[in-house]
Design goal:
Rossmann fold; alpha/beta; six-stranded parallel beta sheet; 495 residues
């Protein structure tokens, strides 16, 4: 065993990819853990870009400065598209056809509920403001023999091949840095297939996260032959084994850093505010300390159909005192990808008990800004008497704070095709599993909404045991923070 002073400097490249994963890595307690082990274990950490590809020069410089001045982490460009005509053509075919057809075939073979729903929507052959491009799965992606496991196997091999993954920028990163570990934030993305194919040539150890809790039954095959696969919870572990054929000894439950602030050792509100130097939520949002707080997590416009009429109904009832005889404040929280939030919900500013809470701007990823946002959400949920949302991860967030949850499963006063209805969005594999634990109330009309609001305001312990099941089975919290478990895995892999 080498002495502490004689330890050879190790190197890690982190490829976070998507904004949500970038947030999990760099706006959570994980970033301090990474900084600590980089000093203690003598590790140089490289971050291969975030979110968009390619990113602007000024934006790149600001991120580079942030990571290097605050955490001594080296920020390098994310891979760019190949420059040659043949390389660009190969890149296009791989990312825009091979990956999509692999996803379609994988979902078709496994007969996922989510996949069946997308196929039914696709049959409508309509353009509608309540449709999103990811809701559409054209049948030609499965042509021919959509359920052929052999064809799928061939496609995955092509995706994983160094021939289809040739990229000078990635190759240069790997050749020059010679990392001991490549850490992937999303093991189902095209970029991960590109990195892994080339990393194998250099015999680099590779570990990767499943990006989020719904992706294993929706987003197609994972990159094969990694050294370790990291999942949030026991349900995802089972899905990775059953559907993706990954050996259980390669799968590790590490949770998700996005939930760490709910279980942070400084969970006391005063300590969190002081430690992270953020504004007090009650002062920032001018909340009444003697009022009960309802937290409404809105969705993107194409998913949150009828939310405006539902919120209007709640506001009128609060104003008329139709809910239990207590003061009520209502926080309206935006979805991170909703650019229409301020315009859609500005009408509710007229109510003195309503506060709008816009999430940070997604056009750029600001780690410090998103950290503040995540902490504020955790503090507000701890103060909330009730959370109202659609089919959303917020049901898991709420379970972490044991806050009652109402799931909206109707379209307010909007009449719409059943296939496009909010109700149909619950017809997906991951949410069916969550609902089965009886930790939320799924409601389908205004009278039921009023009844459930009244019930939870007067009996906050209702469905508490179900919420505890959701916390354990989906947030995957077991004594240690996700950030701690991830850093432990990193140390074991590079030791």
């Amino acid at each position: 065993m080498q002495s502490e002073n004689n330890k050879e400097m190790k190197k890690i490249i982190i490829v976070p990819g998507n904004f949500f994963v970038s947030r999990n890595y760099f706006s959570s307690p994980l970033i301090e853990n990474l900084q600590q082990i980089s000093v203690k274990e003598k590790i140089t950490i490289y971050i291969a870009g975030v979110e968009s590809n390619p990113i602007g020069l000024e934006y790149f410089k600001s991120l580079k400065n942030y990571f290097e001045s605050n955490y001594n982490m080296i920020f390098i460009p994310l891979m760019d598209r190949p420059k040659s005509i043949i390389g660009r053509f190969t890149w296009y075919i791989k990312n825009n056809f091979l990956h999509k057809t692999a996803t379609y075939r994988f979902n078709e073979i496994n007969d996922f509920i989510t996949h069946k729903r997308y196929k039914e929507i696709t049959k409508l052959k309509i353009k509608n403001k309540f449709l999103w491009k990811t809701d559409i799965w054209p049948k030609y992606l499965g042509f021919p023999f959509s359920k052929s496991k052999l064809i799928l196997k061939i496609i995955i091999r092509l995706l994983s091949s160094s021939i289809t993954s040739q990229n000078q920028q990635i190759s240069e990163h790997l050749r020059e840095i010679k990392p001991d570990l490549l850490l992937l934030g999303d093991i189902q993305s095209p970029i991960s297939f590109n990195y892994v194919a080339l990393a194998k040539k250099f015999k680099i150890k590779i570990a990767g996260n499943v990006r989020t809790w719904d992706h294993l039954t929706k987003n197609g095959p994972v990159v094969p032959d990694l050294d370790e696969y990291w999942v949030w919870n026991p349900i995802m572990r089972k899905e990775l084994e059953e559907f993706h054929g990954i050996s259980k000894d390669k799968i590790f439950e590490v949770g998700s850093p996005q939930f760490d602030y709910y279980f942070f050792s400084k969970t006391n509100e005063e300590n969190l505010i002081e430690y992270f130097k953020i504004k007090r939520p009650d002062k920032e949002f001018f909340l009444d300390k003697d009022a009960e707080l309802i937290f409404f997590a809105t969705n993107r416009s194409h998913r949150g159909i009828g939310e405006e009429s539902i919120i209007s109904h709640i506001c009128e009832n609060i104003a008329l005192g139709k809910y239990p005889d207590k003061k009520i404040n209502l926080i309206l929280r935006s979805h991170p990808y909703d650019n229409t939030f301020n315009e859609r919900f500005k009408q509710f500013d007229e109510y003195p008990f309503v506060k709008l809470f816009k999430s940070p701007d997604l056009s750029t990823f600001n780690p410090a800004e998103f950290r503040n946002d995540m902490i504020k959400v955790s503090l507000l949920l701890k103060r909330s008497k009730l959370v109202i949302c659609g089919q959303s991860t917020f049901a898991i967030d709420s379970a972490c704070t044991d806050t009652p949850v109402i799931n909206i499963s109707f379209d307010g006063d909007i009449k719409i095709d059943n296939n496009l209805s909010v109700k149909n969005r619950y017809n997906v594999d991951h949410y069916q599993k969550l609902i089965s634990m009886d930790g939320t109330s799924v409601i389908e009309d205004f009278p039921s909404l009023d009844k459930e609001i009244t019930s939870y305001l007067t009996q906050p312990d209702l469905k508490s045991s179900g919420r505890n099941l959701i916390k354990d089975n989906f947030a995957g919290f077991f004594e240690k923070l996700s950030s701690e478990r991830i850093t432990e895995r990193i140390i074991k892999l590079i030791d």
